[in-house]
Specification:
The protein has about 675 residues and is an alpha+beta fold. About 45% of the residues lie in helices and about 15% in strands.
């Protein structure tokens, strides 16, 4: 379930990525002319509304293709036709006819069905998920010969229409009940004053994932229950200090709180993901601050880090309640962004709107510290902190032309090893491929090194090791696919095109200040240079420079400040990345991958923030020795291009956590 939710969160980013464009066009349009009478304003507004008015379609397509296992376009088509089925059957005209309402004054169509249109996100998400599930289950279905044309992927859109027809039949009766229940709830809390305003603010955010917040908004913002908060505010017909109470409290959150949350998400991202996270969060923060369009930011953590969204809803309720309690009122035409704040500032119904800015500063601090605490405390998967999935096309591996660089590397290894005729078994440890071959004498070592290997070790006639680095798992998975014929070898043109694309994609980094930090002994014992480690892969610095300690006990500590990037399944190694981007491998013992984790107890998990000297594991040295393995605790800096200098003290006895040198990043 956790993996499913995380895939859902990542899939949502596809349609969400279109929202900043909508916010930009609509925000500029409202700034030029909030009534959109001006032809330029009207044109820009309609341009942005192309997206916001069809959000349901975008979510149906985005979720369908994002959740499909192979991301094939047939899944997107299934999502689209499924959504069109729902909006057709549950639209006001057809739904009214099915239920016996002709739309006349005597027999009006229930208002719930007016909300079923192309912008309905709830039905978009529901349809996308159902379409993806159908695609994953039936994409390889083979029908009888007479119906063979409709086999496989062609079958899925047909099934999607049928499935959503059944869902629509159920919703024909359930949807009005849900819609009306929310409307009645809204009317019930109107008499609760500022507390009721707070409840409204809370449920307004809580219902956004379902799309039902519009039903609740109609009660408070328009003339359904006699409140008409937006209309009365702009017409000046309301009560001074009261009218606008269901709008004012949104400003401190959308203009200050959520941008601060975006900053917290960026600060908590993994170092290697901060650049991408920064771009996403800046765009989302600008959208909510300038225009009040908060969906791009909210959807980025709504599912993967749902506890944060609950807290966000609570904070929104507090903000709306407090502004109403203080009688600080304002209003908006579109949403609570800077544009509407400026336009509403001089409204005769605006009561101390400048105090909303003061409240906004408080909300910003609250959001930043609460989000930072929760993300780190509960290791929430906000953007930039997602788990890497080797089976997910949305992972962090650079891709071009449909093939990632690890597949290209594996393809070249496969050919240099002699293909499937020579390669028999693919295995790997923390940093190297461990291969069984028919004849190690025929492999092309030069080609393997030219493909990116740090080194090649011929163990025996039928055993070979290729040193790759901490990303070896990606290469091993692809190599096994080539060996088992699950993937066809690449053509030379595809391989060359991929390498060129990867080289072109490498960003030119601007100069940054170097960072120097202390490194400490990971355990008690004798400090030795890495050249003295009794494994030539480490001793020859194939993986990078570093140092080691020959331990006298099994208390293992973090060698420096950083964040856990990887805990290997066999528990014998931990990957750490520093804030300056240094990638560090803490390797416990020599060849201990073969012990399958038995001698080790790891006390940290991926995403944990470490301080130098913090206990990360316990190792049973006696068990390691009894298995005939070395016990050296090795620290390696695997991305040597980021290391400006590494200074390690001379050999000698050290205490665990004792400073033994320093490392400086470029």
């Amino acid at each position: 379930m956790k993996e499913y939710i995380q895939r859902l969160g990542r899939s949502l980013m596809l349609p969400v990525a279109t929202l900043p464009a909508a916010a930009l066009f609509i925000g500029i349009a409202n700034w030029i002319d909030p009534k959109n009478v001006n032809i330029v304003s009207a044109f820009l507004f309609k341009t942005g509304n192309t997206i916001t008015g069809n959000l349901g379609i975008l979510f149906a397509i985005g979720l369908a293709i994002g959740m499909a296992k192979d991301k094939n376009g047939a899944s997107a088509l299934a999502g689209l036709v499924g959504f069109l089925t729902v909006t057709s059957l549950l639209g006001p005209t057809n739904a009214g006819a099915f239920l016996g309402f002709d739309g006349s004054a005597a027999h009006p169509v229930p208002p719930a069905f007016n909300a079923v249109d192309n912008s309905n996100v709830f039905f978009g998400i529901l349809t996308g998920l159902i379409a993806a599930a159908l695609y994953n289950k039936f994409r390889d279905t083979k029908l009888p010969t007479a119906l063979a044309f409709f086999s496989g992927r062609r079958l899925v859109p047909i099934l999607s229409v049928a499935a959503m027809a059944v869902v629509s039949l159920f919703m024909l009766f359930a949807w009005p009940f849900a819609f009306n229940a929310l409307t009645m709830f809204g009317k019930a809390i109107v008499g609760l004053g500022w507390f009721g305003a707070g409840l409204y603010g809370f449920f307004n955010r809580l219902l956004i994932p379902t799309g039902l917040h519009h039903a609740l908004n109609n009660v408070f913002w328009f003339n359904i229950a006699g409140i008409n908060d937006i209309g009365n505010f702009w017409s000046g017909k309301g009560t001074f200090g009261v009218t606008g109470m269901y709008q004012a409290g949104f400003y401190p959150v959308l203009m200050f709180g959520l941008p601060a949350a975006a900053f917290a998400i960026y600060r908590c991202a993994k170092p290697e993901n901060k650049k991408q996270t920064k771009s996403l969060m800046m765009a989302a923060a600008f959208a909510t601050f300038f225009t009040g369009v908060s969906e791009p930011l909210e959807f980025s953590f709504m599912f993967d880090a749902w506890p944060l969204y609950i807290v966000h809803a609570v904070l929104m309720g507090i903000s709306v309640a407090f502004a109403a309690f203080m009688h600080w009122t304002s209003g908006f035409n579109f949403s609570a962004g800077l544009v509407d704040y400026v336009l509403a500032f001089r409204s005769p119904m605006a009561d101390k709107p400048y105090m909303l800015l003061v409240q906004g500063v408080v909300m910003a601090l609250l959001y930043y510290f609460v989000f930072t605490f929760m993300i780190k405390k509960f290791n929430l998967k906000t953007p930039g902190r997602e788990d890497v999935s080797t089976n997910d096309d949305t992972d962090a591996v650079a891709k071009a032309n449909g093939v990632d660089r690890f597949v290209v590397m594996a393809d070249r290894f496969f050919k240099a090893l002699g293909g499937s005729d020579n390669l028999k078994v693919v295995d790997n440890c923390t940093t190297r491929l461990r291969l069984t071959v028919a004849d190690s004498g025929i492999i092309d070592q030069a080609a393997i090194k030219a493909a990116g290997a740090a080194g090649v070790k011929i163990i025996s006639k039928d055993n070979v090791q290729i040193i790759v680095g901490t990303e070896v798992q990606f290469v091993a998975d692809a190599l096994e696919e080539f060996r088992s014929h699950a993937r066809e070898p690449l053509t030379d043109e595809a391989s060359r095109a991929q390498v060129e694309a990867d080289m072109a994609a490498v960003p030119v980094e601007s100069a940054s200040e170097s960072v120097t930090q202390d490194i400490v002994a990971p355990t008690e014992g004798k400090l030795i240079p890495i050249e003295q480690v009794s494994d030539e892969t480490f001793a020859e610095k194939m993986l990078g420079d570093g140092y080691a300690v020959q331990p006298t006990n099994g208390d293992v500590r973090a060698p420096l400040d950083g964040t856990v990037s990887t805990v290997f399944p066999t528990k014998h190694a931990i990957g750490i990345i520093t804030d300056s981007g240094l990638e560090v491998l803490l390797h416990m013992g020599i060849d201990t991958v073969q012990l399958k984790g038995t001698p080790f107890t790891v006390l940290v998990k991926e995403g944990d923030v470490l301080t130098a000297g913090q206990k990360v594991a316990e190792a049973d040295l006696d068990a390691i020795k009894a298995a005939g393995k070395g016990t050296d605790m090795i620290v390696v800096f695997t991305n040597g291009d980021k290391v400006a200098s590494l200074k390690v003290n001379p050999s000698g006895n050290v205490k665990v956590g004792e400073v033994v040198g320093s490392v400086t990043s470029k």
